[in-house]
Each structure stands twice: as structure tokens, then as C-alpha cells.
Amino acid sequence: MSDPSFFVHESAYVDAPCEIGAGTKIWHFSHVMKNCTIGRDCNIGQNVVISPDVTIGSNVKIQNNVSVYTGCILEDDVFCGPSMVFTNVINPRSHVVRKHEYKRTLVKQGATLGANSTIVCGITIGRYAFVGAGAVVTRDVPDYALLYGNPARIQGWMCACGVKLDFAKRQSAPCTACGQQYVRDGDGVQPAIPAQVTK
Known about the structure:
Mean pLDDT: 95
Strand order of the largest sheet: 1-4-7-10-13-16-19-21-22
Number of helices: 0
Oligomer: single chain
């Protein structure tokens, strides 16, 4: 690629047409396929494949050995840990073509997907949710949830800055790192006032 506003390593491939934001870096042996949109200041690690028609927001970090399949949407500030896995077909068979059955997977702003986690297609990962390493996520995840295990289950709640919250049977909890206050909201939690995340 000749556009000086973003960086593509000489061993990587970017198929045309694609839209890539300023400041984004695409590293060794990666492949961005046609009709992808990637925002500003992203870091696409080594040996990453981004399939056709994928949309990725700004300031997204995709670590080594991740494949982002058609149907995935990653909003701003998402973190994909090393070797985590997306899927896009519920019932794949080698001898049955199911490209018309690709499911949409939405990862909302600020979510973290830990190393070696697996995200089964067709679900939504909420804002600032935190998926632990090795988790297998099979259903929608609420905002700020901390989950791990196989199948993954909610184990607590996380601040937008990445620190576990301690409600201790109370209806509200402050983040011990940044001071943001959170309140219980039905089966989930929300910031008492909109979170201010420092980049």
C-alpha cells in the first residue's frame, strides 16, 4: 500500500478496495481482505486474517494469530487477545456451503476478549465487558460483565478502566483505581455517570 497515513508491513497483504484509517499498523504475514473498513490508530498483529466486509472501529488492538471472520463488527477500543477465536457459522460442514448463513457477531466499545477465548457467532459482547483467557462464550454478554469458563459465565463486573468491581451485596460500587461509581441495573451494572476513559 502506498498511503503514508497508515503502515502495512512488506510481508502483509491488503486487498482492494479497503478503507484504513490514519495511524493504523498492519504487521507481519497478515491479510486484510476486500471491502473491509478499519478505523484510525488500530494495531493489527502478526498472522491476522480479516475476512471480507468486516468492520473494525478505531483504536482496536488485534493480537497475533486472530482471524476476524465475515459477519464480525468490532467497535472502537476493542482488544482481541492472542489466538482468540471468532466463528461465523453455527453448524459448519466441509461438504455443505453455508456462506449465506453467516451470523453477525457484535463486539461493543471497549470490550476485552482474552487470549485463546472463543466467541461463538451470532452474539453481542457488551460495552467494556471482559472475557477471560480461554473462555468459550455462547450467549450475549451484558455491558461491564466479567466472565470466564467453559461455557463462560458471569463471575463479576469490571470498570471501563479494567479493574474488577466489588459490590459486596451493595447496590453501588466505586472503582478502586479511577473512582468511577457503578450501580446495579436489573441483571447488570451501569456507571452512575457516563464513564470517562483516559486513552
